[in-house]
Amino acid sequence: MALSGHAMILHPLQSKSMTHGHRLPLFPALEMHRTETKGHLPQAFTGKGIKKNKPLHLLVSRAAIGSSGGSDSSLQIIKELYSSINKKDLKSLGALLSQDCFVDDFSFPQPFEGKKEALCFFEELITSMGQNTEFVIEHICGGIDQTAVVNWHLEWKKKQVPFTRGCSCYELSKEGEQLVIKKAQVIIESPVKPGGLALTVFKGINLIFDAFPGATESCRVPK
């Protein structure tokens, strides 16, 4: 979903229920098996350090292969979501969301709860994308219980924008006879690349946790 590109950071939104919002647990594991798919990413902006495209290795769910009706329907809804964003069609986009839609973009401090807040989020996203930027789906796969995962990036006039790769997880449900998006979690690429330093810091934190287990266990993780 995501949904948000790096440009989203330039247009922060304030959710009415942010002070009460909580991040929900991660999605249930997808029922996956390994397969190999080779492909190439679109032309990127020129610059130093850009390497040639390499083959991609993709995990695809059993449900996404062949013509399994439920999974195909879920994947089609997700594709329609990105198509509506690219077309700047808020009316069609709104029809894809459940009334209790929950959008958790990790670029924001709190999630967006309810269809009204979710639509405000998407409207601001579409505005921030301008006239020539659009989402491009790299991979999409379906899982159990009407779930789907998408890898995507943003392109400006068919050229990939740096630091706009992302991964979105979706959970869908039925409202009457219509399949709609109930939950979305969005993780986007960080423009900061700490590399091995991140692992060094992570190791140091865990050493502190292990050295002071009592204090660590008494700490409450903010939600």
UniProtKB/TrEMBL annotation:
It comes from the Eukaryota. Residues 79-176 form the SnoaL-like domain. PANTHER family: NUCLEAR TRANSPORT FACTOR 2 (NTF2) FAMILY PROTEIN (PTHR33698:SF1), NUCLEAR TRANSPORT FACTOR 2 (NTF2)-LIKE PROTEIN (PTHR33698). This is SnoaL-like domain-containing protein. It comes from Cuscuta epithymum.
